[in-house]
Amino acid sequence: MSFKENFLWGGAIAANQAEGAYNVGGKGLSVADLKTVGGNGKERMFTPTIEEGVYYPSHNAIRFYDNYKEDIALFAEMGFKVLRTSINWSRIFPQGDEELPNEEGLKFYDNVIDELLAHGIEPLITLSHFEIPVGLMEKYNGFADRRTIDFYVNYATTVFERYKEKVKYWITFNELNFGTMSHGELTVLGIHPHGKYPLHKMPNDEKTRFQALHHTFIASAKAVIAGHKINPEFKIGCMIAHLSMYPLTPAPADVLQCKEYDLLVNKFVGDVQVKGEYPPLIKRYFESKGIEIQMEAGDLELLKSGVVDMYKFSYYMTLCVTTQNGAEASMGNLMGGAKNPYLESSEWGWQVDPTGLTFTLLDLYDRYQVPLMVVENGLGADDKVEENGAIHDDYRIEYMRKHVLAMKEAVEKGVDLIGYTMWGPIDLISAGTGEMKKRYGFIYVDMNNDGTGSLKRSKKDSFDWYKKVIASNGEEL
Ligand code: BG6
Fold first, then answer.
1. Averaged pLDDT score across all residues of the chain
2. 233 is an active site residue
3. What ipTM, to 2 d.p.?
4. CA–CA separation, 393 vs 384, rounded Å?
5. 8-471 CATH pick, 1.10.10.10, 1.20.1600.10, 3.40.50.2030, 3.20.20.80
6. Any bridge partners for residue 125, and if so which?
7. Structural domain boundaries of the chain?
8. Ligand 1 pocket by Cβ (under 6 Å)
9. Contact 16/427 with Cβ under 8 angstroms?
C-alpha cells in the first residue's frame, strides 16, 4: 500500500503571511494588520491603530499580491497538485458588515485561482486564516456577538458562489481549536491566536470564549450547509491544530491528565465539526465550571446537518503532559508542554516527532473515519545563503522525508489520507513571531525580519527534492 494515485501533494500559505498590499484595492483592515513583529521568545503585540515607526509584517509580507504569477509558476515547477491559501476576508468585505462585496478584492482572487488552474493546481481555500475585519471587532466584538455569524456566512456564500466552478476544497476556519485555550481569546473573538488584542471589550474568561466558540461552530455549520447547496461536490473541511500529546511518565495521574487535555484541546472542536455534536464529557466540564452556552432553537440541528466532509489538520510537533512540578518545558504552535527526553528540538524549541504523525493519523482515523488531510507540516529554520547563492537545507529535507515516511506507514495501516500540503513552500512571515528568518520554504525569499531585502525568490536544495517526491508519488525520498 502506498499513497493514492491522485494524492494531493502541495503546500500551504495564508493571506496575511504572504500577500501584503494590506490597504490596496479597497481592502479594509484585518486584525492581522494591527499586529507587530515579535521574535524568538518575544511575543507579538496588537496596537489599537497603526502606529508610526512600528513594523507590521502583514503590510507587505512577501508581496504575493504582486508576485503570485512567479510564485505559482515555481509551485507548478515542483509539480504541485494543490495549493492551500486563504482569502483575506477584509479584502472582500472591508468592514465586515457590508451587504455587497468589494469587486476589486474578488478580482485578485479570480486572478490567483485562474493562475493556479492554468497550471493544473487545485486551489484549497481557507475562509478565515487568523483573519477577521477590524470593523467586526470594533462594532461587534467579533464572534462574541452572534450577529457576526451572519456576516461570516454572507462572506462565505459570496465566495462559494463566485468560485463554485473553480474551487472544490475549502476550510471554514484555520485551527479553530485555539478557541479552547486561555490565550486563544482572539480565536473566538477575532480569529487570531497570538498576542493581546486591545479592541474588544469582552473579558477573556472561559464563559466568553466558549460562547464565542459556539458562534464559530454555528458559522462553520451554516457555511457548510450553504456550500453544499451551491455545489454538492464541494469538499469542506475543519482545520484543527492537532497538538498530539503523550503522558510524560506512565504515572496514572499523568496518563489521565493527558487524556483530559487531549479531549479539551484537540478532540472537542473536531468532534463538533465532524460528528455534529458537543462531546458528553465537554458538556459535563461546562456544567462543573458553571458555563452555560447560550443556544438558539435549531442550533443543535444546525451542528448536525453542517458537519464537514473531511478532517484537515496541522502537525508540527508533539508535547508531553505531566502533573509533576519542575518538568523541563518545550515550545509549540499554540501551546507548549513538558519536554520529551526522546526527541530533538528545532531552533524555536518545537520537538520533532515523525512517529507522532503516524500515531496521530491512526488516532484520528480511528475516531472519525472520514478522509484525512495534513494541511500543514514543516520545519522553521534560519537558512544560510552560501556565497554562490546556494541554500543547503538538508535538515529540512530530513524533517520532511521522515514525516512523509510516517504518513506512508499510516496509509499502510489503513488510514484514508488524501493529501499533504506542507507549510510555507515559499518563505513567509511567521504567525507566531512575525519573523522572516523562521523559514519553512523550498523557495527562499530575500527578506529580513524588519522587512528589508530585495524579495528575490531562489530555490533551496529542498526544491528539487520535493519535486522528486511529488513526481514519484512519495516513493523517491
Ligand atoms: C500554524 C498556522 O499554527 O503554524 C500558520 O496555521 C503558522 O499560520 C504555522 O505560520 C507555523 O507557525 P509559525 O509560528 O512558525 O509561523
1. 94
2. no
3. 0.99
4. 8
5. 3.20.20.80
6. 85, 170
7. 8-471
8. 14, 17, 174-175, 241, 314, 333, 376, 380, 423, 430-433, 438
9. no
